[in-house]
């Protein structure tokens, strides 16, 4: 089985709303078209950046349907389908498979502290609901409250549909450990770097590509960084990572949620109106517009590197 389609730059897709705060299929399609034009390798739909835990299953289906209407057959699509219960997660998994996505993904169940055998069963049940579709484990312990341990990974690698890990833990050593553990299990998997601020570090220690929440704001910069790494131009790649980090730090300095900032930046950069964010996430407040302008300026300067 070839894993090439999972390598490269895969932006985490944003939830797109209309003026009333409802999911907008038209705005979703516009964002897909923009990202395809910028040369990304795929999209990760319905994850943290897609505000998944604040959308109901029908809204998540609507978003994925709109994405696939534009992107199917053009780029790789990974659909995050986890809900905080197995039944809804399996429903979304089956729906995603019916649309022809390349892979489904899931965080572990949150809130209750479950034993690892329960987490493995949850993931395997979701995978079984889409039996002809690849499965990606989503490791984000700082938000989910659960870490992917090596024994849990060993158990999940028994599932032939498991092809990769979206690793959003901060230590890049985790990427190295997961790749090593897959070799011990005689199985090749892809590992995606999650934290955008350490894209280069993650790639150099073994990540096959990246899935990130700020990629969609500045897709050209991540596409270029990945290209520079593939060409061995580490010096220029480092300069670009420094510039990207300045953008990210500025995005995180608004009073509103970072994804509200991201959507405001895209409105200025690309004339894409994606709405705000779903409560209880906070929209931008007075004074944040200055920071949005600064972010746009930082991106434009980084494009010159």
How many helices?
12
Low-confidence stretches: none
Radius of gyration: 18 Å
Q: Helicity level, as a percent range?
A: 40-55%
CATH homologous superfamily label: Aldolase class I
> What portion of the residues fall into strands of 2 or more residues?
5-15%
Strand order of the largest sheet: 1-8-7-6-5-4-3-2
Major pleated sheet? 8 strands, parallel
SSE order, one letter for each helix or strand: EHEHEHEHEHHEHEHEHHHH
Amino- and carboxy-terminal Cα gap: 37 Å
What is the CATH T-level topology?
A: TIM Barrel
How many discrete domains? 1
Gross CATH architecture? Alpha-Beta Barrel
- The chain-level mean pLDDT equals 97
Give the gist of this structure.
This protein is of the alpha/beta class and 305 residues long. The protein is built from 12 helices and 8 strands. It has an 8-stranded parallel beta sheet.
Write the layout of secondary structure elements.
Elements: E1 8-11, H1 25-37, E2 42-45, H2 57-71, E3 76-80, H3 86-99, E4 103-106, H4 116-129, E5 134-139, H5 141-144, H6 150-156, E6 162-167, H7 173-184, E7 190-193, H8 199-204, E8 209-212, H9 219-231, H10 234-251, H11 258-270, H12 288-302
Parallel strand pairs: 1-8, 2-3, 3-4, 4-5, 5-6, 6-7, 7-8
Helix pairs in contact: 1-2, 2-3, 3-4, 9-10, 10-12, 11-12
């Amino acid at each position: 089985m070839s894993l090439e389609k999972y390598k490269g730059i895969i932006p985490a897709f944003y939830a797109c709303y209309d003026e009333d705060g409802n999911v907008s299929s038209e705005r979703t399609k516009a964002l897909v078209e923009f990202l395809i034009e910028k040369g990304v390798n795929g999209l990760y739909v319905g994850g943290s950046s897609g505000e998944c835990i604040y959308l109901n299953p029908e809204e998540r289906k609507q978003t994925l349907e709109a994405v696939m209407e534009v992107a199917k057959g053009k780029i790789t699509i990974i659909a995050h389908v986890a809900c905080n219960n197995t039944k809804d997660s399996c429903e979304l998994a089956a729906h995603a498979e019916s649309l022809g996505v390349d892979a489904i993904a899931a965080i572990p169940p949150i809130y209750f502290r479950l034993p690892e055998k329960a987490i493995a069963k949850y993931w395997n049940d979701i995978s079984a609901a889409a039996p002809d579709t690849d499965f990606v484990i989503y490791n984000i312990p700082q938000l989910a409250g659960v870490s992917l341990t090596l024994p849990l990974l060993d158990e999940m690698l028994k599932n032939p549909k498991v092809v990769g890990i979206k690793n959003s833990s901060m230590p890049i050593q985790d990427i190295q450990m997961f790749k090593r553990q897959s070799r011990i299990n005689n199985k090749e998997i892809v590992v995606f770097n999650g934290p955008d601020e350490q894209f280069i570090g993650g790639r150099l220690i073994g990540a096959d590509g990246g899935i990130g929440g700020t990629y969609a704001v500045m897709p050209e910069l991540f596409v270029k960084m990945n290209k520079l790494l593939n060409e061995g131009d580490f010096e220029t790649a480092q300069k670009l990572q420094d510039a990207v980090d300045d953008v990210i730090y500025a995005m995180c300095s608004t009073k509103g949620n970072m994804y509200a900032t991201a959507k405001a930046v895209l409105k200025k950069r690309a004339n894409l109106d994606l709405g705000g964010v779903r409560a209880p996430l906070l929209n931008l407040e007075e004074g944040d517009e200055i920071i949005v302008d600064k972010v746009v300026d930082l991106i434009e300067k980084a494009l010159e590197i």
